[in-house]
Amino acid sequence: MTDPVRDLTRLDEATARLLTVAGTLDDAALAEPSRLPGWTRGHVLSHLARNADALLNVVAGRPMYASPEARDADIEAGATLPAEALAEEVRLSAARLAAALAEPGDWERVVELRNGVTDRLARVPFRRLVEVELHQVDLGAGRELEDLPAEFTDAENAFLADRFTGHPDVPPLLLRPAGSPALTSGRAAAPGEEPLTVTGTPADLLGWLAGRRAPDGLKTDGGPLPALPPL
Q1: Measured between alpha carbons, how far is 195 from 95 in angstroms, rounded to an integer?
Q2: Backbone angles phi and psi of 59, in degrees to 5
Q3: Tens digit of pLDDT for each residue in 18-58?
Q4: Going by DSSP bridges, is the β-strand pair 196-200/183-185 parallel, antiparallel, or unpaired?
Q5: How many CB atoms lie within 10 A of CB 54?
Q6: With CB atoms counted within 10 Å of each terminal CB, which end of the chain scores lower, N or C?
Q7: Full DSSP string of 164-215
Q8: CA 178, CA 28: separation in Å to the nearest integer?
């Protein structure tokens, strides 16, 4: 069940960790490649700053981005800022979003995200939490999927499993992360069809579902592991 108040607390904690890491990266470190293809660490931090402002637009009922081109241009512009200036952009944008979410009004209000996707306002804190937590790993600055809080990893695995539920290109799946609740995903099973069982650590499962890690640590029962479509 969505708990935006709890998610805001977790977001504050994750943002504090992010700002600590951002403060340790100098200009040379920001120019180095991140774990995301084609992006430097500066691109990742610039994206996080602009994502906070984009979600602020969502909360205010404005379009998330002026256009896809404007989104990309803003990220590029911020990626080459001096380290201190970029870290400050991340801090200030996060503070602006936190202030808006502190007085949200109706959590059940439907808001519009990118590409016509809609959701309840109550889900926005978690969506921002996902950005902050996963992109800290993407920075390649010492944080790994295994370092993410177990509560977050379980919640994000459930969220991603839900996103692939009903997708015609994903076979019926039974996901069994070790020590965490089992999840179902993929298209509906045909008569007599058994779901493909996928087992592994919660971190390895998250890495596969989020496109962050090769699925080498996962095991399957019932067939080969499918290639997942882009999120």
Answers
A1: 44
A2: -60, -35
A3: 999 999 999 999 999 999 999 999 999 999 999 999 999 99
A4: unpaired
A5: 23
A6: N
A7: HTT-TTS--EEEEETTS--EEESSPPPTTPPPEEEEE-HHHHHHHHTT-S-G
A8: 39
Q: How many beta carbons lie within 10 A of that of residue 181, not counting itself?
A: 10
**pTM for the predicted model, two decimal places:** 0.95
User: What pLDDT shows up at residue 13?
Assistant: 98
The Cα-based distances of 19 to 39, 92, 119, 150, 163 in angstroms read 19, 10, 28, 21, 29
Tokens matching residue 19: 């700002």
What gap in Å lies between CA 73 and CA 68, rounded to an integer?
A: 9
Q: What kind and span of H or E run contains 47?
A: helix 41-60
Q: How far apart are CA 50 and CA 128, in angstroms?
A: 12
The one-letter code for the residue type at 152 is F
- 208: number of Cβ within 10 Å: 22
Distance of CA 82 to the CA centre of its chain: 25
Q: Which residues of the chain have pLDDT under 70?
A: 1
Report the Cα 183 to chain-centroid distance in Å: 19
Distance between CA atoms of residues 113 and 119, nearest Å: 8
For residue 145, the one-letter residue type is L
38 dihedral zone (left: phi>0; alpha: psi -120 to 50; beta): left
In terms of DSSP bridges, do strands 110-112 and 118-120 run parallel, antiparallel, or are they unpaired?
antiparallel
> What type of residue sits at position 10?
R
Q: Where are the beta strands (DSSP E) in the chain?
A: 110-112, 118-120, 173-177, 183-185, 196-200, 219-221
